[in-house]
């Protein structure tokens, strides 16, 4: 009896973990990929990606019957480039990120990828082209290898190790007594914030998707971890269309385009150079604020 009970218990536990993960990260493509009942429009076609250019056109959005959170957003994220979303808390940055893999559908406006309205493509084909690195990477109960494999269930062991190397995670993984077979998650090895982030980046790399959505961590890591995470991110971002909710000044400065949001609207956009020299702009003010904070530390 006990033996029959065990798998059910594990499954129930996994279910709870998954629900918690969705709540925690608001979206985890790896889980949502495995949901069997994706409702697609009749006649939905497979997304065909060439440059992975993302365009939001007059996008409005509200959660349920709540207030309007996005009030007519127009953003172009060019293929292979990095677009950074910045702005005060509550501006709607995370909401934009959740609309791209269609965790929610905007009631008004369109989101196009290489000219195809994402409402007209199958969710499975859309999400196959998207990887996501959240601010608080979630680790599932399982081995380190399992956790990276969530990015792409059919990945080979060699591909997993290659992704871990690119994400600067291989060395700390090999330093564990069981290497890639080390259990992590609630009952497993406790990893540092930087190590979790690198595993999450390895998970995104193994997915090898042309679009990377990134919610940059706000919490500070120690300098060594910070440097490793930064190198891992640079690797993950290279050659991809990246939409990043940027919290670090260095990310913003390097971005090809900065989109400044406030209260559900885009209030400014341009490069760091362009925006920083407009003293009356919100970006210049945010920028000064950050400089002040850094000085004070
Ligand atoms: P932050 O940097 O604090 O995450 P943000 O710019 O990413 O801010 P959002 O997280 O998109 O902003 O939130 C925009 C607004 O939408 C906020 O008022 C927030 O309370 C609300 N909101 C976010 N998620 C939900 C949700 N699941 N249900 C209802 N309201 C939500």
TrEMBL record:
Subcellular localization: Cell membrane
Signal peptide residue numbers: none
UniProt domain ABC transporter: residue ranges: 54-288
Domain of life: Bacteria
Similarity comment text for this entry: Belongs to the ABC transporter superfamily.
Identification of the protein by name: ATP-binding cassette subfamily B protein
Part of the intact protein present: 299 to 595 of 595
């Amino acid at each position: 009896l006990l033996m029959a009970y065990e798998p059910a218990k594990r499954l129930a536990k996994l279910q709870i973990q998954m629900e918690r993960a969705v709540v925690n990260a608001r979206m985890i493509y790896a889980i949502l990929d495995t949901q069997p009942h994706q409702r697609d429009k009749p006649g939905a076609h497979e997304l065909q990606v060439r440059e992975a250019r993302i365009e939001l056109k007059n996008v409005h959005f509200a959660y349920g019957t709540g207030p309007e959170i996005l009030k007519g957003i127009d953003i172009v994220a060019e293929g292979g480039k990095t677009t950074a979303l910045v702005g005060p808390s509550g501006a709607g940055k995370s909401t934009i990120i959740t609309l791209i893999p269609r965790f929610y559908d905007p009631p008004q406006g369109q989101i196009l990828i290489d000219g195809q309205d994402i409402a007209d493509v199958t969710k499975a084909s859309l999400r196959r082209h998207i990887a996501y690195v959240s601010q608080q990477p979630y680790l599932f109960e399982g081995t380190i290898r399992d956790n990276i494999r969530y990015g792409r269930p059919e990945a080979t062991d060699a591909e997993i190790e290659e992704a871990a190397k690119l994400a600067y995670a291989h060395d700390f993984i090999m330093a564990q007594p069981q290497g890639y077979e080390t259990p992590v998650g609630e009952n497993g090895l406790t990893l540092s914030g930087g190590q979790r982030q690198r595993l999450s980046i390895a998970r995104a790399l193994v997915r090898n998707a042309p679009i990377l959505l990134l919610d940059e961590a706000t919490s500070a890591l120690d300098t060594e971890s910070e440097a490793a995470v930064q190198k891992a991110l640079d690797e993950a971002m290279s050659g991809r269309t990246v939409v990043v909710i940027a919290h670090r000044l260095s990310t913003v400065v390097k971005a090809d385009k900065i989109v400044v949001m406030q209260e559900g609207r885009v209030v400014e956009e341009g490069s760091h150079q362009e925006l920083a020299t407009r003293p009356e702009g919100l970006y210049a003010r945010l920028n000064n604020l950050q400089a002040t904070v850094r000085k004070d530390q």
